[in-house]
């Protein structure tokens, strides 16, 4: 086996711009002794499964009852604390059998809003929910996942836990006002978040009971903005979300989730647009992302704690979105230890001219994991992506993310990209596996890349197929 690894190390493949494949493709096979469950794959057309996936994603429907927050004491002057009024309106709606909690035009200041079964928080056009910059407004702590590890922490700004039929809808605005709070100082320039981050990760690796992983007051783990935790039948529709403190829309351990027609503008670091985590049958459609991190990032838990929970993200659909963000357009990982299966992304525009973001997307497709994470990414499919101005590589896949060491088997396989048209990128491909953990089965078909300035990189990859692919007008 040692000699075989030496051969693999020496056979690194470069794809020249406008040139041929040099040296062939690594086909040494999977590492002997690893066991990965087989899945039936139709390499000719994995998209045949998409209609069945979409048929199972159906937004919830709510009773025709309206509960105006102003009838429960809310004042839309931007100063009055409306936290109690939101709580009373949500409770009344829930106990009546469900309906719409209506936020009328005005600016309503509040702390955490907790949704209950069959409640649609509807933010009307001209209405803004302005979230407090005071961390104390998000206490007491709630059970959550923070960067893929379970703990008790500050409540997300809008939170639902274990609920059925919940929604945030409307043409209004949710303003996180994160720049007014201490959130940025917690992580910037070696801030105090780092110590809590390491402490939580150690707890996850060492198997500390979740009940004993209590953060919140006196600690510095920023909450996400909108989180649905262990929920069934979820809808986020039409709203604009501004200035979140961390991840913006975060479904966790949830199923049948629709995120439709939302706009995200995030400023602080680590403020992804939408992060489906350990969730199934999720559709992100018709959305606009201007983020200071990934636009849509599919996750499934981190390291030992993610493997302990062991719930994958699967049957995720991302379509007809505008993608502008500092890192990935469509990202998988790096928190993916529970596994990711069957991600479909289609008809999205990267760095659209009509929706300029603060940062250009570095990677339209960004798949990242390592041997500390472990687990399997099985089935990531893109088609019909257009745009340009990509800061780095069009397709970036690695099993050696950040060079983090570990002893867990990890596998990325079945990556299918077709009908991609991009003008402007550093390179087309960055596909990097490990000698022990190859990237397997990557297919590009009918793609055209222009304005590419550097060759691609392919290392430790099995079964790379390029059909009808051109770079700067030349066949690859």
UniProtKB/TrEMBL annotation:
InterPro entries: GH28_Enzymes, Glyco_hydro_28, PbH1, Pectin_lyas_fold, Pectin_lyase_fold/virulence. GO terms for biological process: carbohydrate metabolic process. Pfam families: Glyco_hydro_28. This is Pectate lyase superfamily protein. The keyword Lyase applies. Gene3D superfamilies: Single-stranded right-handed beta-helix, Pectin lyase-like (2.160.20.10). GO terms for molecular function: lyase activity; polygalacturonase activity. SMART domains: PbH1 (SM00710). Belongs to the glycosyl hydrolase 28 family. Keywords: Glycosidase, Hydrolase, Lyase. It comes from the Bacteria.
């Amino acid at each position: 086996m040692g000699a075989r690894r030496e051969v693999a190390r020496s056979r690194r493949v470069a794809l020249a711009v406008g040139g041929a494949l040099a040296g062939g493709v690594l086909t040494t096979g999977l590492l002997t002794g690893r066991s990965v469950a087989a899945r039936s794959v139709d390499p000719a057309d994995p998209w045949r499964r998409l209609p069945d996936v979409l048929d199972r994603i159906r937004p919830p429907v709510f009773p025709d009852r309206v509960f105006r927050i102003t009838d429960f004491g809310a004042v839309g002057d931007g100063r009055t604390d409306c936290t109690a009024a939101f709580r009373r309106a949500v409770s009344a709606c829930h106990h009546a059998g469900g309906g719409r909690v209506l936020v009328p035009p005005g600016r309503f200041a509040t702390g955490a809003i907790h949704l209950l079964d069959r409640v649609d928080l509807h933010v009307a056009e001209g209405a803004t929910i302005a979230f407090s910059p005071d961390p104390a407004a998000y206490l007491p702590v709630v059970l959550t996942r923070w960067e893929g590890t379970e703990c008790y922490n500050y409540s997300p700004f809008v939170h639902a836990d274990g609920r059925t039929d919940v929604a945030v809808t409307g043409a209004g605005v949710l303003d996180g006002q994160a720049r007014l709070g201490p959130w940025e100082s917690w992580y910037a320039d070696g801030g105090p978040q780092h110590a809590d981050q390491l402490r939580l990760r150690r707890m996850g690796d060492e198997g500390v009971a979740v009940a004993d992983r209590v953060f919140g007051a006196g600690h510095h783990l920023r909450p996400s903005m909108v989180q649905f935790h262990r929920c069934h039948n979820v809808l986020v529709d039409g709203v604009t979300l501004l200035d979140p403190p961390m991840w913006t829309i975060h479904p966790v351990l949830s199923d049948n989730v629709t995120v439709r027609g939302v706009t995200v503008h995030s400023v602080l670091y680590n403020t992804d647009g939408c992060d489906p985590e350990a969730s199934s049958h999720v559709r992100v459609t018709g959305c606009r992302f201007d983020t200071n991190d990934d636009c849509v990032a599919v996750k499934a838990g981190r390291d030992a704690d993610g493997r302990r929970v062991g719930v994958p993200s699967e049957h995720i659909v991302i379509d007809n979105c505008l993608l502008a963000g500092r890192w990935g357009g469509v990202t998988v990982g790096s928190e993916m230890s529970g596994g990711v299966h069957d991600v479909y992304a289609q008809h999205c525009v990267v760095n659209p001219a009509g929706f300029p973001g603060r940062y250009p997307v570095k990677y339209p497709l960004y798949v990242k994991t390592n041997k500390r994470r472990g687990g399997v990414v099985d089935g990531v499919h893109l088609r019909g992506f257009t745009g340009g101005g990509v800061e780095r590589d069009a397709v970036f896949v690695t099993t050696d993310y950040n060079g983090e060491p570990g002893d867990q088997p990890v596998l990325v396989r079945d990556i299918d990209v077709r009908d991609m048209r991009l003008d402007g990128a550093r390179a087309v491909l960055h596909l990097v596996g490990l000698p022990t953990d190859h990237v397997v089965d990557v297919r590009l078909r009918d793609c055209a890349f222009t304005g590419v300035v550097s060759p691609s990189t392919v290392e430790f990859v099995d079964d790379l197929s390029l059909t009808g692919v051109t770079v700067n007008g030349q066949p690859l």
